[in-house]
Amino acid sequence: MNARWKNLPSAVLPRVVDALPLSGGAVNDVWRVTLADGTAYVLKGSLHAPAGLFPLEAAGLRALHELAGTRTPRVFEVSAHHLLMEALQPRPDTDEFWESAGRAFAALHSVSGDQFGWDTDGWLGLLPQENGWAADGHEFVAEHRILRYLREPKVRSALEPADLAGLERICERLPQLVPVSPSVLNHGDLWRGNVAADPAGRPVFIDPAVCWMWAEADLSMMYCCDPPPDCFFRAYEEVSPLPDG
Do residues 30 and 43 lie in contact, with contact meaning Cβ atoms separated by under 8 Å? Predict the structure, then answer.
């Protein structure tokens, strides 16, 4: 059994009798730890985490719950190196579950903002996410969601100069390419792997990268890897119909 969890600064660790590594974590180690009394938690951590990573994740979970009533995991401990959260369940992956998730996601997007961005920068995985305020959504997307990543060494090594120039031209034309849309509360990193279930089988959203942004930008994340069934999107549109096209 991987014992790296023993080095994390959690007050519950002296009482842990079992730790099961969980799959799906692309950035940090995650375990389901069980105490002697049978209580289970999810412990997520890394001794090499960037400064502020876990406190910002905890703040994002809290913001989604407090602003939109979104079901997120309860956080019991947070430090520079770990989060201790309530234990969740694997997704049922039934149509009923995904319909419920679609309606909950649409409810999140019913919370409107008056600007684009967030009051702090954050993280998308291990990449710093810039959230500087902008009154215009096209400006925010261009500066903080496209051009900002062109500075990353791995991006510059993967793209030819012509590709980089093409992306810059797209940013200049965003107002002509993308219709004006309002600012709404965004999860920011909602793909299939960031949807879990509570003990009652209800959807729980994890690992946010929150900001005020376009609803369809958030929704598009669901297509980045193994999208959910069509019933998720139909249920979403029952609550929050999308513009034609």
Answer: yes
143: number of CA atoms within 13 Å, CB side? 13
Reduced to 3 states, what is the DSSP secondary structure of residue 213?
A: strand
Is 0.70 surpassed by the pTM of this model? Answer: yes
Give residue-wise pLDDT tens across range 117-165. Answer: 999 999 988 889 999 999 999 999 999 999 999 999 999 999 999 999 9
- Cα separation, 36 vs 56, in Å, equals 30
Among 86, 103, 126, the domain-final residue is 86
Domain membership of residue 195 as a residue range? 95-239
State the CATH number of the domain containing residue 101: 3.90.1200.10
Would you say residue 244 lies in a domain? Answer: no
Q: How far is CA 137 from the centre of its chain?
A: 19
Binned average pLDDT, 10 residues per bin, the chain of 245 residues: 76 91 76 93 91 94 97 96 94 95 97 97 89 97 96 94 96 95 96 93 96 96 91 96 81
CATH code of the domain covering residue 49: 3.30.200.20
Residues 6+ positions from 238 with CB-CB distance below 8 Å: 102, 103, 106
Does 177 share its domain with 224?
Answer: yes
Report residue 226 as tokens.
């193994």
- Our count of domains for the chain comes to 2
Do 68 and 105 lie in one domain? The reply is no
pLDDT digits (tens, 9 = 90+) for 101-110: 999 999 999 9
Of the candidates 207, 239, 235, 234, the residue with the CA atom closest to the CA atom of residue 125: 207
Hey, what amino acid is at 13? L
